[in-house]
Amino acid sequence: MLKEDLIKKNPLRLLSPADQGKTGSPQMGLVMARAGLGKTAILVQIALDTMLRGNKVLHVSIGQSLEKTKIWYDDIFRDIAKAVNLERAADIQDELMSQRMIMTFNEESFSVAKLRERLKDLIDQHIFKPDCLLVDGFDCSAAPEKALQEIRELVQGMDINVWFSAVCHRGDDRVSKAGVPAPCHETDGLFDTIILLKPDPVKNCVVLNIIKHGGKFSEGQKNLTLDTSTLLILDN
Could you tell me if residue 34 is inside a domain? Predict the structure, then answer.
C-alpha cells in the first residue's frame, strides 16, 4: 500500500476526511476509558494520521517517560506498516517522526501555565509550531473545568487542535445526560469530539463509541474497534 492509500483508507476517516484542511476553529477531542484499555494507542494513531497528512504534532506525556512514549510510536507504526504492507515504510517513518515533538511532565509538575510557557517558547523561537496537541495522562479528577477551559482558549488562540486522554473508574456511576462518564461528566460541553472505549469480551476487542462528533452528541453512536492484540483501530 502507498502512503496516499493509507491516508484514505484509515478508519479514522470516520472522524475527519482525508482532505480536511485547517479551516474553521480548532477542535478539542477526548478519549476516555478505564486504565489499560488503549487510550495512549488511540492518541498515537490520531497523531500518526495527522502527520501523514503533513501536519506537526506535539505529544505532551504526563507521568510517562520520553523513551516509553517513543516506543509507543515505533510499535504502532510498525504494526500499521506490517498490516497494510506499506511501501517505503522506513522512509515514511523517518519523515513522520521529524514532524513530531514529545514533551514530558511529572504528574505533580504539570500545569496549564507551564504548558503555555513551554509551547509559547517553541513557537516564538521558531523551534516547533504544532498543528495538533496531544495531552496524554491529564488528571480530570480534580475540578478540571477551569484547566480545560484555559487549554481550550490557549489552543484556539494558537490555531491548534487538541486531544486529551482521561481515565474513568469502576464504581463511579456519575454520568452526563449524553453518556459521558465521570470525571468528565460535567465538562463534556467543552469537547467537540468524545470517544469512549469499552471492552467487548465476546469479540475480543475494544469498542470505540463516538458519542460526540463535530460538536454534536450522536443519537445513534458511530463505532470503531480496537484490536486487543495489536492495539490498532479497525473498521467494524
Answer: yes
Write down the number of H helices and E strands in the chain: 6, 9
CB-CB contact of 136 with 62 (8 Å): yes
Residue 190 in any domain: the answer is yes
Distance, first Cα to last Cα, the chain: 20
Task: Note whether residue 188 is domain-resident.
Answer: yes
Task: Compute CA 13 distance to the chain's CA centroid, rounded to the nearest angstrom.
Answer: 14
Give 53-67 as a DSSP string. Answer: TT--EEEEEESS-HH
For 56-71, what is each residue's pLDDT tens digit?
A: 999 999 999 999 999 9
Q: Which residues partner with 162 through β-bridges? A: 28, 133
Query: pLDDT value at position 143?
Result: 61
Q: b vs e for 149-182, b when ≥16 Cβ sit within 10 Å of the residue's Cβ?
A: eebbebbeebebbbbbbbbbeeeeeeebeebbbb
Q: What's the total number of domains in the chain? A: 1
3-state secondary structure of 185: coil
- In this predicted structure, what is the pLDDT of residue 21? 47
Q: Do residues 119 and 84 lie in contact, with contact meaning Cβ atoms separated by under 8 Å? A: no
Q: Is 203 helix (H, G, I), strand (E, B) or coil?
A: coil
